[in-house]
Amino acid sequence: MNTESRINRRYDLDWLRVIAFGILMLFHTGMGFTSFQWHVKNYESSRLIDELVNFLHQWRMPLLFFISGAAVWFALEKYGTWRYVGERQKRLLLPLVFGMLVVIPPQVYCERVYQREGYASFFDFYPTVFTSGNYPQGNLSWHHLWYIPYIWAFSMITLPFFGWLKSQGGRSIIATFQKLLARPGALFLVFVPSALAEIALRPFYPGDACNLFSDWANFAHKLTFFVIGFALASGTQLAEVIASRRNHYLAAAVASLVLIECTWNVPLRMPPALYRCLSNFHAWMWILAALGFARRYLNVNPPALRYATNAVYPFYILHQTVIVMLLLTLVYMDLGLWTKYFLVLLGTALVTWGLYEGVISRVNVLRACFGLKAQRRPQPTGVAAVPGVDTPTKRPGHGSPIREGSGPIAAGLLVALVTIGFIPHAVASGKIMPVVIQGTSLSSNRLGIADKQPAAVYLPPSYSYGTRRYPVIYLLPNFNTPVWRYTAGNYQGFRLRPAVDGLIRAGKIPEIIVVIPNAMHFLGSSWYRNSGLTGNWEDFITQDLVGYMDGHFRTIARREARGLAGHGAGGTSALELALKHSDRFGSVYAMSPAILSGEDLKRFTAGGDAQIGSWQALTKQWSIMDEESAARAFRLYMQARVNSSSRNDLFDALRVSCAAAVGSPTTKFPYIDYPSSESRDEAARARFWAEILGDWESKVKAYLARPDRLASITVEYGRGEEYDFIVHGAQHVSQVMHSGGVPSQLHVSEGGHDSTLGRRLETGMLPTLANTLRTE
Asked: pTM of the full predicted structure?
């Protein structure tokens, strides 16, 4: 009797594993085009992809953990305990280490490039993988490979229990368990263990950190799927029962999906424990439906399955890095959203297959690094295991089912998918065009900030025909805020293109162009100031950016047709730049501007005083390094604080970026004139910080001395603003302008700093500012 017969191969599970990993590639490709945070983001997102990703997220990983648990039954049956332990180390730990050192670093590098972190090259970046600490503050990560250490941990901690279940007494318990589940309606309760795990632990461990060590809610939740998968794999009787009731599970899955959708999309209040039960019931019903349909229709073993079973693990390890690299290449191209999506999806499939077929499967060292068994013959004839699954040896005579004749098919698919991306919208709509601007004003900066900066440009529906010219709104992003947050739905579903399209169709605003320039780099922001260190960002906005738009698009090149807006740090800068350059802009709308006055300025100064000692110690260390090493250390210092969830770290980063923007360059790296307790008294230090965040009396006085006047000045903040100094600052600057006789409006909106920003943009900033601008 051969090995395959002895272990009663479950081809339906093999198919589900392959399909599940294929869904993972679909999911991760979609993440670049959703409103959710991810490593590299397209400027436009799709609500359809949002819904698809939300749907898949509920059950894709539980299905994989279930299948991996089931596979352990067959692995123990085949290998025995000690050989199984050895196989786990080779198939899991070696690919994990290889992935973290070779596969994941290019992915993290692409993310840092997208964030304008300032690395000269990948070779400049790579040493920081070992010196910067763990992601996201540092650059060492396992990213999407988190599934591997979890499977390894589950395999090790459950081994004594699973070993006992393989004994005669354990098998009888499993048989009894399966008989109970085979009763009508019993499997509808299989969600209870995973739901209880989340109800007990999720309040203490919210989110899915996927870091193994402080992720106990996610850990316990996924472990339940792994253990139940093992328990259900021992016999085929329950599999046949599930197959016979597959339509019942599918109906329950669809019904629970409708309820889940209600909790996502309407203000339906549901107790957290009840939601946990619903979401786990939803996940289990899709898993049971998938098991039933696979058992009924996919319990076959064609050559395509044997090939895919062998290739799926390398595909999993490689796919997300390929996705991120392709997306970074395409994000600034003037292509439609769906064109980019299908190009990334198809490109990932082709590149990953090419690497597997052309390199990995043919080199035994690489086969080991990707969890495959050594190849004993020139052509791939064996099927090796993937995490948690061991597969039989391929029989002679079965070659690769896709090795020949795939070129014309792939080319045809590429043409078809790209054509789909160019299908026009049924309703006339605008367009988001990504551009990259050569900023000559930034070229002389000493900190290595790129002088080529991307921007998102919204063009109105009628722009594609005629010769009409349009007014322009320039929107300046907040501190450490990427452009996509304002265009791709991250702020409560606000998407710039459909939002402006809707306002135009409703007749609430004229047709306009909206420009959002990137201002994010490793310092977090340059505060749109001219600086010898970070570059002349004031000139970049007022000259390079405005000049580029007037030279490349049909704008109305007059101050009365230009509006300036901003949020947070961008709101501060929008207000200051508009007052200072009233000859370039006609109106301004400052949202939640970071303005300091009175006691708030004193507290900010005191916080800077507290930081002085550690800053001086760091600069002393950097002064004895070569400049390349010092620059790398400084980037990592800022990276850790800019990406931190700590408010103290955030304000440390704010102070350093402010000092870089306003101080005179020093002779020692990083050349930042940080206020020193030895060189400045308290009043002098307060004046230093006030230069960028305060002193609005002087700024308004200078505005009044200029000949041009802004048609509209609006300062706005949220009623629930989390930062008190923003409320005080907005009220203060409004009072200063009122006292100086400068017409302005102080508007208080509902919500906090970010919590209702999407609505504030759509119902406040856009209509208010657009209707003050001169149209053709």
From this structure: 0.85
